[in-house]
Design goal:
The chain is an alpha+beta fold. It has four helices and seven strands; from the N terminus they run βββββααββαα. Strand 4 and strand 5 form a beta hairpin. The relative contact order is 0.20.
Length: 162
């Protein structure tokens, strides 16, 4: 699974959907969104069972920085309110998780699965939810870039790029 940001789209855009494109990989379907010139946000869709899919933003090992939550969370609350909400599971429908079999952290949101596979389930609703997730990830990155709670956290943002 590719990390959150990339300098290459990995797929072509068309006139009908000029800001988002789809790329099929062997383990997921990627939604690639134009953020800026030469900057793309990559989210992945995977089946989650029970008629749902996970829309995932891969943060790599960025959240390994949280070693002492009692000290770090209050500083996050003061400087990065959206990040604080993510870290305390109070960001509406968005969850931070690390699977046991993987090193990377994922920020995900469950979306409805309309078809039998994720590719056939990409609806306007899913694209809207994806846009909201990408915007939230950009908000968190901007908080960390402009007002990091700890100096090393700003430097860690480079790890979000493919």
């Amino acid at each position: 699974m590719r990390k959150l940001f990339s300098e290459k789209a990995g797929a072509t855009f068309n006139d009908g959907l000029p800001t988002t494109t789809v790329c099929v990989r062997k383990d997921c379907v990627e939604l690639v969104s134009k953020v800026d010139r030469g900057v793309y946000a990559v989210t992945s869709l995977v089946s989650a069972g029970n008629g749902q899919m996970r829309l995932i933003a891969n943060w790599g090992r960025f959240f390994d920085r949280i070693q002492n939550p009692e000290v770090q969370l209050p500083r996050c609350k003061a400087t990065c309110p959206v990040l604080y909400k993510l870290l305390t599971d109070s960001l509406d429908g968005i969850t931070l998780a690390k699977r046991k079999d993987e090193d990377d952290y994922s920020v995900f949101r469950l979306v409805p699965m309309a078809g039998v596979i994720p590719l056939l389930s990409i609806t306007k609703e899913v694209l809207d939810i994806n846009r909201e997730l990408v915007n939230t990830m950009i908000d968190i990155c901007n908080e960390l870039l402009h007002n990091p709670p700890f100096p090393g956290w700003k430097d860690g943002l480079t790890g979000l790029w493919n």
